[in-house]
Amino acid sequence: xxxxxxxxxxxxxxxxxxxxxxxxxxxxxxxxxxxxxxxxxxxxxxxxxxxxxxxxxxxxxxxxxxxxxxxxxxxxxxxxxxxxxxxxxxxxxxxxxxxxxxxxxxxxxxxxxxxxxxxxxxxxxxxxxxxxxxxxxxxxxxxxxxxxxxxxxxxxxxxxxxxxxxxxxxxxxxxxxxxxxxxxxxxxxxxxxxxxxxxxxxxxxxxxxxxxxxxxxxxxxxxxxxxxxxxxxxxxxxxxxxxxxxxxxxxxxxxxxxxxxxxxxxxxxxxxxxxxxxxxxxxxxxxxxxxxxxxxxxxxxxx
Length: 303
Description:
Layout: E1 6-7, H1 10-32, E2 37-43, H2 47-62, E3 66-72, H3 78-90, E4 96-99, H4 109-112, H5 127-135, H6 143-157, E5 175-179, H7 186-195, E6 199-203, H8 210-214, E7 219-222, E8 240-243, E9 247-248, E10 254-255, H9 260-264, E11 269-270, H10 277-297
Parallel strand pairs: 1-11, 2-3, 2-4, 5-6, 5-7, 7-8, 8-11
Antiparallel strand pairs: 9-10
């Protein structure tokens, strides 16, 4: 069943968010006397991490934020990273903190992330904010799952004229499957889908009859980190496919967890890789930083 799917352009949606967040940053600066501030901690010289951090800081500045960074050597000790976190925790001009992952060597992110103040947790990974998400009590949401949900909203609405006019889709009666169970994406995106009244199934490498389970879903989120795992027969005709994976093949090509060309034959809407969820992850980091600033200072600004 060939279709002409709606390609969910994450770059375009992120660009719309950038303009929206620039306006919100200006509102903050007018009330607070300074813009929201993002503090970035980069440990090591991993080329991909360096590129990601440079892109995030460039985007933050373009959205009107102030940025600061701590760049540490790959051999940095645990206490040196902790000191960088504590510095940003204490600084009044820093509202959101990003500890760029993955960390090199023996540094344990599970021990370092809880050291970030929950009200400055721009990535939404602190156990306190994860607990708020689990209980449905608000808090800062993880960036990639949040960006994925906005792309789903765009798919359901058939477009996005402005952020203010993009409705939060009611997913009542729809089946969603999340392939992947990481704390970064799989688990939290499932919680966000549940908040919208979807009936959610979590699946993973141990799930029996995985292709058949996926083919029952109206919404398929692929977040497992295996290149082109999801094939055409895994996709229900007319489903919305949200591909969170990004994998580099042997010939250097970037592909998602979904075989994109095959997915286009079945899906009603689908995210490309690259250019889908990735740009939205960066936009959500900026959004969360502005949200942290507004919440910390009790500003009457809706984000």
